[in-house]
Design brief:
The complex is a heterotrimer of chains A (about 425), B (about 300) and C (about 375).
Chain A: H1 10-18, H2 41-44, E1 55-62, H3 69-88, E2 96-103, H4 108-121, E3 126-129, H5 133-146, E4 150-152, E5 165-167, H6 172-187, E6 191-197, H7 200-216, E7 220-227, H8 235-244, E8 248-252, H9 256-267, E9 278-281, H10 286-292, H11 294-297, E10 301-304, H12 313-326, H13 334-353, H14 358-364, E11 369-373, E12 376-380, E13 386-387, E14 391-395, E15 401-406
Helix pairs in contact in A: 3-13, 4-5, 6-7, 9-10, 13-14
Chain B: H1 7-41, H2 49-70, H3 78-100, H4 109-131, E1 147-149, E2 155-157, H5 158-179, H6 182-192, H7 194-199, H8 204-226, H9 238-250, H10 256-276, H11 279-296
Antiparallel strand pairs in B: 1-2
Helix pairs in contact in B: 1-5, 1-8, 1-9, 1-10, 2-3, 2-4, 2-8, 3-8, 5-6, 6-8, 9-10, 10-11
Chain C: H1 9-29, H2 32-57, H3 65-84, H4 100-104, H5 120-143, H6 149-169, H7 171-174, E1 185-186, E2 189-190, H8 194-220, H9 222-232, H10 234-239, H11 244-270, H12 280-293, H13 298-318, H14 323-336, H15 341-354, H16 360-366
Antiparallel strand pairs in C: 1-2
Helix pairs in contact in C: 2-8, 2-11, 2-12, 2-13, 3-5, 3-11, 5-11, 8-9, 8-11, 12-13, 12-15, 13-14
Classes of the chains: A alpha/beta (about 425), B mainly alpha (about 300), C mainly alpha (about 375).
Amino acid sequence: MADDKKVPHPTISRRAILAGGVAMSASLFLPKGLRAQDFPTDQVNTTGLAVTDDTVQVGILHSITGTMAISETGSVQAEKLAIEQINAQGGVLGRKIETIQEDGASDWPTFAEKARKLLVNDKVASVMGCWTSASRKAVLPVFEQNNGFLYYPTFYEGLEESPNVIYTGQEATQQIIAGLDWVAREKGAKSFYLLGSDYIWPRTSNKIARKHIEDKLGGSVVGEEYYPLGHTQFNSVINKIRLKKPDVIYAIVVGGSNVAFYKQLKAAGIDMTEESPLLLTISVTEDEIRGIGGENIEGAYACMKYFQSIENENNQEFVAAFKDAYGDDMVIGDVTQAAYLGPWLWKAAVEAAGSFDVDKVREASPGIELTSAPEGYVKIHKNHHLWSKTRVGHAKADGQYEVVFETDDLVEPNPFPEGYQ
Amino acid sequence: MFSGYSMSELGAIFAMQGFAGLILFSVFVLMALGLAIIFGQMGVINMAHGEFMILGAYVTYLVSNLFAAYAPGLFGAYFFVAMILAFCASGLLGMAMEWAIIRHLYKRPLDTLLATWGLSLILQQTYRSVFGAREVGVTIPDWMMGSLPVTDLIEVPINGLFVMVLALAISAAVYIMMFRSGWGRQVRAVTQNRTMAGAVGIDTERTDRLTFGIGCGVAGIAGAAFTMIGSTGPTSGQAYIVDTFLVVVFGGAASLLGTIASAFSISQAQSILEFFLSGSMAKVITLLAVVGILMLRPQGLFAMKLRK
Amino acid sequence: MTRSSLFRRDEAAGLAILALILFVVFPLMLDDFRLNLFGKYLTYAFVAIGLVLCWGAGGILSLGQGVFFGLGGYCMAMFLKLEASTPEATAIQSTPGIPDFMDWNQITALPLWWEPFHNFGFTLLAILAVPALFAFVIGFAMFRRRVGGVYFAIITQAIAAIATILIIGQQGYTGGVNGITDLRTLLGWDIRPDSAKVALYFVNAVLIFVCLFVAMAIRKSKFGRVLVAMRDAEDRVRFSGYDVASFKIFVFCVGAMMASIGGAMFTLQVGFMSPTIVGIVPSIEMVIFCAVGGRHSLLGAVYGALLVNWAKTTFSESFPELWLFGLGALFIAVVMAFPNGLAGLFDDYVKPRLAWPGRGRRARADNPQPAE
């Protein structure tokens, strides 16, 4: 990990590339379309993957039915968009990407079954997929045993570092610490009420948050509480929040519960624009706001790596292309953007390796960078997570976030944080 | 946990917590009334109840979009139109389903469970195909979101009040229909003894269809009302199904009064536990208590004395 | 019905055909991947057989079979997890030697009730005894008070809901919503490669036959006939002096044990266990397997579980956005058009043509019109 310790800065690494650095990854610097005949199939594919002279097959594995379809649809759309764009540029090593899409049906054994199908039967070169931690945990042994390669888009709790997965979302410390620091520094927050849906991501995240609040910020946690997934009645906890009067409500509620929580919070007369208490969340992206209604969450803060409103050229192009493909009323959340990175990172790694073989792609992956990422610039860490910036957004009534803070440097991913366990 | 608070603060919190319990009670009543008619009176295990509710929610969504586009001036009032249309849509769909499926299964109640489960899968996928897999955002008129300050400390959420009034109104309407109207007498006659009811000249088929339709229609209204407090997506309906059935069974399936009493006791228990424990445990303990009591008293709180 | 032989001739023929399909046709026709899938489907067949006993023969419809399936699965998963969590393999944890999810939840010592699951013998015993005990408690409470039919179905459904919330809420001890994952070996035998899955498939198939024999023996016995009598006219059986509740409790326990065996095999076959398999939706789906196969037919249950799961996989591969329509329509069709499921279709349309001497009529008598 030693060579990754210094924080790479976009300008520095661009210089490195221009100077002939090996990380020739970003599509900007490659001539459009490598020619397939320069990369004979028997050389770029020595392990029997589904690669022909003109095509390469890639799997997409998300829930398009069941309760998780609500969240995973955006990821599927982003992945398909990225693949179309890659194909329009000539594909990967001159080969068009063909996708095989499977439905995980919000059911973890089905995810494992479909992953096995993609790897064993279809022999796909890589898989873009999974959303919940549970589905990732279910497919992980399948990927490790069959030596598949998965690009996983969701921000998640960390505590994992598989050689067969590239984590394109943020792990918990990346997402949490910068946001807490910001709210303590800028808003003088001292007391926090932690709230979440009852499963591993909110619990682990809140554990890290609690440690950071108590040990590093010198603040206090006045309440911590979990509700079952799908819970729709939050009036009791809202009363408890009134009783405790925290400076910050730190909410990690997910799924349909989100809608119920924010609507009831607003109806109970807690106006988030007044910021007393201030609401900070790490689980509400623009996607969720569509269901919640912008007017119901106006004034809340969210901490993640990407917001649709980020101003840079990459993002403007990405947003335009996404709306062009799926309609003007589409919104793009953090996970959708992370899912969009998957195919691009894979393409970059394959072309750096000059091979589709999973072992070679894995070897080439650390250090791969993407200057064309909508979020700006990302680079794969040795631990298979991404270096990325963390941002704080302020929710507006139109359902968009206004970016109010952005870390100066890329934040190092640290899936096994010392002192936060 | 209460040290360092003044008496007035504590009083205010408890008042609001009591109110939260009442809102939960109203939500339960709205959820359960439709099912109390369909399951309690007709004996049909309608696993698609949640999907009928969500149909009402989607109707509300469509109506709100229509008003926003064509009659923005009347937007504040669209909710009432939406509730009427939700009743009609869910009711008509319910009558159609009764005609197509349920009427063949009255002698096999457990089979209605399987058939309506299949129906719920089809409805979910239909919603997904029509409205997309994502949740839709239903814009609630401004006057309904927000709260009335009663004192400095106590604030009463308006949508909570609205749900309570609605629950009262619908309970009253159902009560009058079931126990004070000729139609209600027919319904009760048919459910108690179908053959005899037919013999004395009641059109049992028509009565069944209408009863089922009204049960579904009430579910539709509940769904419309729940857009204020919950989410609207293809699978949102499933979140309600267990609570709903437990409320009805706990009350003693055949008794409307029982349904209301059980909604009250379950909601109060859950609301109080939620205040002192964490959310998940409160839910588990409430459910366990309900199941435990049902094991000791399987006929529910208010059982109708029937000779089997 | 003669008691001279254990099985009637058509039953023996049915068993032989099933054996042929499971032991010869599938292994020859399917590649390893598909065979593994069928291995997974077979684990559901255990539940379906148990349900035929409870529901088809006893008239008890449980919507909580997923709980028993899960109990067996979790028992097996706990054993496998402990085997996988050797101090060497978990050296990076703050407390080596305990399952990884416990370490993530700041649990520093193995909980006492996990300890016995170091022992394989105890685990096997637990897979049979824990669900049986649990079923006994539920059955004792409910059947003694003459709770039946619809009420029983809904209460068991609530139990499935509670179990899910409880497992998810106690994630330090249960692995939470992720479940118990990353299981590697069974007594040193690696369960992950395809060859192991094929072996497990055959273990499954053999166990299915054991369960079928047990179930048939139960149905054949006097006990089985009391059950059927109970289903059709419970009060008359009670007035004849039989202790109806005890019979129901017994058959419910047997059904629970079969579900539990299925769950344990499921864990081995799939390599993890999670609360989604315990909840309401899978529990209802298990009833559907049984209904599609024919709620009165033990062999039908096996075919039902295989067919529905195969259809689910195939539909969702070919038409991922439409498969719920197909599945939903299947449920409605089973109830409306052929309430006795595949077995009923077989009896009505195929059997008469086969013309087994003097068999058709009697077989009918075992498969009456559904009565609740």
